[in-house]
C-alpha cells in the first residue's frame, strides 16, 4: 500500500506497511550499535522508522537528516531479530538510500565516479579482476613496504590508511582458475552450484577454493558458473536498486539453468542478498521462478549441516576457536547454530564462546571506511570480547567481517589468527 500524501521523492519507496508496523515498544534499542554509540533516538531503529513514516504521511520532507540516518544505519539487521512486530528498520533504511540518491544527488564528480564503480566495474568480473593488478604490483614490488614504513598514509584521510591496512596479501583471482565442474569424491550425494562472490574471488580466493574442495570431498559435484556476476549487495548499500535488480535477474536466470540440488555460497553477505532476490525481483520475475531460486540458496554451513557432515577421514586441527557471527548470517538469515556445529565436528577443535558473538564488528561493506571513528568504537567492543576468550583462532564466515577483524586484531596487538570457517574445515579435509 502506498500513501497518497507521501513525500518520498522517487518511485521505489519503502512500503507504508513496513513503517506502520512499529508500535514504538523500544525492544530494538539495546540491539542497535548506532544507538549504543550516540544515544540519539533518530539513530535508533525506532527513530529511523518514525522518520520514514513521517515522510510517508506527508508530515516531513525527505530531509538531509533522513538521508544521513539511512547511510549511518549499518544494515546489521540486529533490530529485526529483536522486533516483536517484524519491523525491518535496516531494510527500510536501505530503500531510503535510493530515495536519498534522488533527493540529494551530490556533486558531478562524485556521482560520476559512483556510477562508474557501480554500473561499469562491479557488474563486470573481468574488469574487476584487471583492476586488482596495480594492487598486486604494489604489494609485490615492495611499494607497500615503503609506504607503510614512511608513514606517508598518515598525511591522507583516515579511510585511506585503514583501507590500505586492511588489504590482505593478494593472490590471483579465483574465478578464472576454478573449473566449472569439480567432480564429487567418494560416494556421490548430489550436485550443487557454487556462487563465488567477487570479494571472495579477489581477496580470499583460498577460502573459496577450500569451500569447493570440501564440497567435492563431501560427495557433491560442484558447478561454478564462470558468468556469475556481483550479487548486488554493494549497489543496495549505495542506493542503486536499478543495477542491483539487473544483476539479480542475471544471476537468478544463470543459476536456475543448472540442474542442481542447491545454490551454495560461503559469503554471508552474498547469501543474504540472494535470499532477498525474491522481494527485489517481485515485479519482474514470475513468482514460481523466484520461489524455486529462493528454495535452493544455502549458506555453506547451512548446507553442510542439513546434508550431514561426513567426518570419516577428517584430520585433527588442534586449536581453541571463538566464533564471530556475521550480521548477514545470524540476523539476515537466522543461521547461528550451524557454523558452531561444523566447528565442533572438526576433530581437535575446542569452541570457546565469546560474549555478544552476534554484535556487529563495525565493517558493513564500506560503512567502516565512511565512519572510521564509529567503526573503531564498535570494533573495540568486539575485540574486548575476543581477547577475553584467549582462543587461538577468531573464526567468522563473511569476507567483510574477516577484513575488519584481521585489521583490528593486528592494530590491537592481539594474538588471535582470523580465519573463515571453511579454512579450518579445509585444513581438516584430506587432499
Ligand atoms: S522497531 Fe520493533 S522493536 Fe523497535 S520500537 Fe518498533 S516495534 Fe518495537
Ligand atoms: S539495522 Fe542495525 S544499525 Fe540499522 S537500525 Fe537496525 S540495529 Fe540499528
Tag the structure with descriptive keywords.
5-stranded mixed sheet, Fumarate Reductase Iron-sulfur Protein, Chain B, domain 2, Glutathione S-transferase Yfyf (Class Pi), Chain A, domain 2, globular, single chain, binds iron/sulfur cluster, 431 residues, Glycolate oxidase iron-sulfur subunit, 4-stranded parallel sheet, 4 iron, 4 sulfur cluster binding, 4 domains, 8% strand, alpha/beta
Descriptive overview:
Its cofactor is [4Fe-4S] cluster. Pfam families: CCG, Fer4_8. The model has no long low-confidence stretch (mean pLDDT 95). By secondary structure, the protein is an alpha/beta fold. Helix content is 53%, strand content 8%. The chain folds into four domains: 16-103, Fumarate Reductase Iron-sulfur Protein, Chain B, domain 2; 108-166, no CATH class; 181-307, Up-down Bundle (Glutathione S-transferase Yfyf (Class Pi), Chain A, domain 2), CATH 1.20.1050; 319-428, Rossmann fold (3-Layer(aba) Sandwich), CATH 3.40.50. The radius of gyration is 21 Å and the shape is globular. α3 (45-56) crosses α6 (89-103) and α4 crosses α6. The protein has helices at 16-20, 33-38, 45-56, 64-72, 78-82, 89-103, 108-121, 125-131, 133-140, 143-150, 158-166, 198-203, 205-217, 233-237, 241-256, 268-280, 287-296, 300-307, 327-333, 337-345, 367-370, 372-389, 399-412, 421-428; strands spanning 181-182, 190-194, 220-223, 262-265, 297-299, 319-323, 349-351, 393-396, 417-420.
Amino acid at each position: 500500500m502506498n500513501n497518497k500524501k507521501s513525500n518520498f521523492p522517487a518511485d521505489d519507496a519503502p512500503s507504508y506497511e513496513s513503517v506502520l508496523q512499529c508500535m514504538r515498544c523500544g525492544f530494538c534499542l539495546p540491539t542497535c550499535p548506532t544507538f549504543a554509540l550516540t544515544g540519539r533516538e533518530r539513530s535508533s531503529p525506532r527513530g529511523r522508522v518514525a522518520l520514514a513514516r513521517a515522510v510517508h504521511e506527508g508530515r516531513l520532507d525527505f530531509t538531509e537528516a533522513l538521508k544521513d540516518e539511512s547511510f549511518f544505519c549499518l544494515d546489521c539487521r540486529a533490530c529485526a531479530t529483536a522486533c516483536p512486530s517484524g519491523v525491518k528498520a535496516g531494510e527500510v533504511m536501505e530503500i531510503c538510500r535510493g530515495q536519498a540518491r534522488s533527493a540529494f544527488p551530490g556533486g558531478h564528480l562524485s556521482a560520476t565516479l559512483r556510477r562508474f564503480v557501480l554500473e561499469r566495474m562491479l557488474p563486470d568480473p573481468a574488469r574487476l579482476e584487471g583492476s586488482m593488478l596495480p594492487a598486486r604490483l604494489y604489494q609485490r614490488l615492495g611499494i607497500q613496504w615503503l609506504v607503510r614504513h614512511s608513514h606517508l598514509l598518515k598525511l591522507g584521510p583516515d579511510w585511506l590508511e585503514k583501507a590500505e591496512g586492511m588489504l590482505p596479501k593478494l593472490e590471483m583471482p579465483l574465478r578464472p582458475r576454478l573449473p566449472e565442474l569439480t567432480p564429487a569424491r567418494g560416494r556421490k550425494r548430489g550436485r550443487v552450484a557454487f556462487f563465488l562472490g567477487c570479494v571472495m574471488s579477489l581477496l580470499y580466493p583460498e577460502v573459496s577454493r577450500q569451500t569447493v574442495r570440501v564440497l567435492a570431498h563431501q560427495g557433491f559435484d560442484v558447478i561454478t558458473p564462470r558468468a556469475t556476476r556481483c550479487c548486488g549487495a554493494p549497489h543496495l548499500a549505495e542506493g542503486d536498486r536499478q543495477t542491483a535488480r539487473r544483476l539479480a535477474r542475471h544471476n537468478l536466470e544463470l543459476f536456475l539453468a543448472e540442474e542442481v540440488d542447491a545454490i551454495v555460497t560461503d559469503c554471508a553477505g552474498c547469501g543474504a542478498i540472494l535470499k532477498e532476490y525474491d522481494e527485489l525481483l517481485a515485479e519482474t520475475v514470475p513468482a514460481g521462478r523466484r520461489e524455486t531460486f529462493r528454495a535452493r540458496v544455502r549458506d555453506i554451513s547451512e548446507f553442510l549441516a542439513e546434508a550431514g557432515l561426513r567426518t570419516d577421514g577428517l584430520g585433527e586441527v588442534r586449536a581453541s576457536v571463538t566464533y564471530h557471527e556475521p550480521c548477514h548470517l545470524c540476523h539476515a538469515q537466522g543461521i547461528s547454530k550451524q557454523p558452531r556445529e561444523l566447528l565442533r565436528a572438526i576433530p581437535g577443535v575446542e569452541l570457546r564462546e565469546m560474549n555478544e558473538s552476534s554484535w556487529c564488528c563495525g565493517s558493513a561493506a564500506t560503512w567502516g571506511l565512511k565512519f572510521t571513528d564509529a567503526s573503531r568504537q564498535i570494533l573495540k567492543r568486539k575485540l574486548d570480547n575476543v581477547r577475553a576468550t584467549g582462543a587461538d583462532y577468531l573464526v567468522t564466515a563473511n569476507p567483510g567481517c574477516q577484513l575488519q577483524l584481521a585489521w583490528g586484531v593486528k592494530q590491537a596487538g592481539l594474538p588471535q589468527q582470523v580465519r573463515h570457517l571453511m579454512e579450518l574445515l579445509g585444513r581438516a579435509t584430506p587432499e
